[in-house]
Write a structure and sequence with these properties.
7 strands; alpha+beta; about 140 residues; 3-stranded antiparallel β-sheet
């Protein structure tokens, strides 16, 4: 006759077997004591990083460059579309394509939207601004 023990959730369940057949209708159950093997519990933690860390100086300089309209241009492609381009801050001879639009008005609106976007990012680096004070 063999005694089998199973440890589940801090509870010891034991029952006796004979040739892989249970003797008795129900297994016996008792709480684990200090002398028994301790249970290992796995805990996990999830978190979201929501920091407003200030960007480095290189990033701020790039945003300043992108927020200046004199660094942008519009070129017409062979297929009739218009492409917005911004010049490289380190080399004025290199231009990087940004968007393509069907009309020149659409291309200029895309440039204005990009300038507005980067201007807001620069404004956010200055920290919170006071909108109302109380006496």
């Amino acid at each position: 006759m063999l005694k089998k023990e199973i440890y589940l959730s801090g509870v010891e369940t034991s029952f006796y077997t004979n040739s892989n057949k249970n003797i008795g209708k129900y297994p016996t159950t008792k709480l684990l004591t200090k002398n028994k093997t301790k249970m290992t519990y796995l805990y996990y933690k999830t978190s979201t990083y929501t920091s407003n860390a200030k960007p480095n100086e290189k990033t701020i300089n790039q945003w300043k460059h992108l927020a200046d309209k004199s660094n942008w241009r519009i070129t017409q492609l062979p297929n009739g579309f218009y492409q917005t381009e911004v010049n490289d801050p380190e080399n004025d001879l290199n231009w990087h394509d940004v968007t393509r639009r069907e009309t020149i008005e659409g291309a200029e609106a895309a440039i204005d939207g990009s300038i507005d976007h980067f201007s807001k990012k620069l404004e956010a680096t200055k920290g919170p601004k006071v909108v109302k004070t109380f006496e």
